Amino acid sequence: MNENPKYTLKELFLYFLKLGTIGFGGPVALVGYMHKDLVENRKWITEEEYREGLALAQLAPGPLAAQLGIYLGFVHYRFLGATLIGFAFVLPSFLMVLLLGIIYQIYGGLSWIQAVFYGVGAAVIGIIALSSYKLTLKSIGKPNLEAIKSKWLLWLFFILAVLITYVTEKEQVFLFIAAGLLYMIVYARPKWWNIKTANSFSLITFLAIFWSYESSTLTKIAVFFAEAGTFVFGSGLAIVPFLHSGVVTENQWLTEQQFLDSVAVAMITPGPVVITVGFIGYLVNGFLGALVAALATFLPCYLFTIAMAPSFKKIAQNKPVKAFVEGITAAVIGALVGSVIVIAKRSIIDIPTAIIAIVTIFALLYIKKIQEPYIIVVAAVLGLIIKLVIV
Fold first, then answer.
1. 239 CB contacts (<8 Å, ≥6 apart)?
2. What is the pTM of this model?
3. How many CB atoms lie within 10 A of CB 213?
4. How is residue 109 annotated by DSSP?
5. Which of 74, 139, 339, 359 has its Cα between 20 and 30 A from that of 162?
6. What torsion do the CA atoms of 134, 136, 137, 140 make, to the nearest 10 degrees?
7. Tens-binned pLDDT, residue by residue, of the chain (391 aa)
8. First to last CA, the chain
9. Please, what is the angle between helix 256-268 and helix 64-107, to 10°?
10. Cβ distance 88 to 16 under 8 Å?
């Protein structure tokens, strides 16, 4: 890594503060902005440094854009840079969802607000349905005979995760870890792996997953969101199955509609989609709930980055690590698909919501430059018209 940066830490901090404030379009758009601004235009970051950061962001758990931003902060300014850049990137969208959470809690019972989110909720179903499909193609491959033959085990993990998530309506962390370990053992078994290691690891994992205890709501929020943040690979929407099962089904902190509204809020604000956790945390336990939920979600992302960055080139070439991540990713995406089916079953309640969801999918597929925030706004207007004018 170049030790003579062409920029100050303050300049990089202000750049990411701006990106976090006006950066719409989801993770792919955000990482594109970083390349155009920092590599091509300002030449603060080299192409090699950017590619290493992007590879780390795809390999390690954590929302893609935030992970890359933290890595780019680490490139020349190490721990302080990673910390400040992560903070600058997330802060603007956190403040926005916090403000929206306050407004939502005050006015959420009004008929016009309910009408707005009637349309928005249906559009969100369409957006996450299409995103889960694209993630499946990107991470596992096209569902044709040749691809299924070559990656049959990944497809098996994917299908199992879809079915188990649909039936249990819960996030199955043990399934994800088991998928990663099994795929690693089959395709890239590390030298240190043996029966004794396997038994010890299985016992530790079992105890960690099934240990139950009484705690305050704030502690529950911290533990739950830290667990969710540990299994977000590539796209912020991968966190949806974790949040849905924990927030709606298990803890019953939010209703189904409130959960959909939370996802929608994250899509109409700039920055990482994962920031929906701030909105959810606020609805559950006020400002402290929002703060704890956001910190707990992004902490794994930050820790993985600063732990892996110094020796990432060596880690990136490690076949067992790659295989472990591939196995987990297949199961996580399967859980996302299963979660979409569960949410859609309860949220597509009539013909108008079904039409809005379907039109959303086709709009994203065939109108190339359209972005999610515009679709959310149109869906909100349609919701108002349908509920307050037509009905």
1. 63, 228, 229, 231, 232, 274, 276, 277, 297
2. 0.74
3. 7
4. T
5. 359
6. 160
7. 446 788 999 999 999 999 998 887 667 678 888 998 999 899 999 888 888 888 788 777 778 788 899 999 998 999 999 999 999 999 999 999 999 899 888 887 667 777 887 888 888 888 888 877 877 887 787 777 877 777 888 889 889 988 988 888 766 667 777 888 888 888 767 665 555 555 554 444 444 444 444 458 889 999 999 988 886 665 666 777 778 888 988 889 998 888 888 888 887 788 787 888 999 999 999 999 999 999 999 998 899 888 888 877 666 667 777 787 778 778 878 887 887 888 788 778 888 889 999 999 999 888 877 777 788 888 888 988 887 777 5
8. 62
9. 120
10. yes
Contact 60, 303 (CB under 8 A): no
The total number of residues written for the chain in this structure? 391
Tell me the two tokens of residue 25.
């379009």
Question: To the nearest 10°, the Cα dihedral for 57, 47, 312, 298?
Answer: -30
Burial class of residue 205 (count of CB atoms within 10 Å of its CB; 0-12, 13-18, 19+): middle
The structure tokens listed for 88 are: 């600058």
- Identify the bridge partners of residue 233 per DSSP, sorted by sequence position: 62
* Both tokens assigned to 162: 């879809």
Beta-carbon contacts of 82 under 8 Å, excluding residues fewer than 6 positions away, are 70, 71, 73, 74, 302, 305, 306, 309
Distances (CA, A) of 281 to 157, 167, 224: 31, 26, 11
Using CA atoms, how far apart are residues 351 and 293, in angstroms rounded to an integer?
35
